[in-house]
From TrEMBL:
SMART domains: Inhibitor_I29 (SM00848), Pept_C1 (SM00645). This is Peptidase C1A papain C-terminal domain-containing protein. CDD domains: Peptidase_C1A. Gene3D superfamilies: Cysteine proteinases (3.90.70.10). Residues 108-334 form the Peptidase C1A papain C-terminal domain. GO terms for molecular function: cysteine-type peptidase activity. GO terms for biological process: proteolysis. The lineage of its organism: Eukaryota, Metazoa, Ecdysozoa, Arthropoda, Crustacea. Residues 24-79 form the Cathepsin propeptide inhibitor domain. The keyword Cytoplasm does not apply.
Amino acid sequence: MKFLAAILLLIVAVAMADQDEDSWNFYKFQFGRKHSPKDEAGRRRNFIARQRRIEKHNREHAEWQMGHNKFSDMSDDEKLALLGANPVIRRERLVSAEASLPVLDRALPASIDYRTDKCMQPIKNQGQCGSCWSFATVVPLEFNTCKKTGTAVALSEQMMVDCDTGNGGCNGGMYDRAWQFIQGKGGVMKSSAYAYTSGSSGLKGTTCKFDSTAIGAKVSSFGWTMPYPNQTVSMTYLQSDGPLPSAIKVLDSLYNYASGVYSDPACIVADENDVAHAVVIVGYGTTTATTTVPATPYWIVRNSWGTGWGLSGYFLIKRGVNMCNIESWTAYVRVV
């Protein structure tokens, strides 16, 4: 009997190894992965480990699903390079809390979704550079400038990476400091005049090439949504002031988010400064209850990891519980 059991285990192991190899080869084909012989074994191990986590999660959770993407064979260090939110301490944030809650002339709607608004620029990709903060900086400026002028505009993240010495380029930064820099500089340039290169060419911040003749937007004022964390306050600002940048804690599972409303008990944290990635809230809503999953309030969040990640570059995250600190770091900006 022991011999037969050993044979059976061997057969199962061989079958799993074959299945893993097929999955690995399909992944490389699907995502155009070509590795050197030196890197192949390590990349394959990363992928197989990720495959196991995805399978386990999707068996055990119905509220949101994981899937493979360009991050599935990356090392932990490579994924950490995609983060770059470096917030200031809370005392400094309180000093800037001068604005009061906007007074709306109508009740808050049940949902808001700016993803398809004509003033929302296409999803962008920060690449292997911790410049998420610069992408979060320009999204509301693009949106609000378009609303004011009636003309869509794409703004330069690279200008902040290269020129904003108050932030750290690919080593991280924060959108409030970037807005302050833009105010002092007289505006932010259009991306057509200052294209993004840090994530694709390996140029992680070069000599500043600021040109005042190519300015596409100017900052009038900005601030933190107060009081915080408060979903109603953030919803109010979202309606009155457009998309709201925020900073979040990132668990390893988020890299392979595929669909549904993201949540994790480990991402409800006591330390409000435990954040590492800048994103932008562009809407909210509530799911329809099913027999297996209750109705869940959510934020619609724009990321800067390209359209091949999540919901074509966006994700949903549970609203009203300060998931991953997202309701502690919402900020608004107004344009000239």
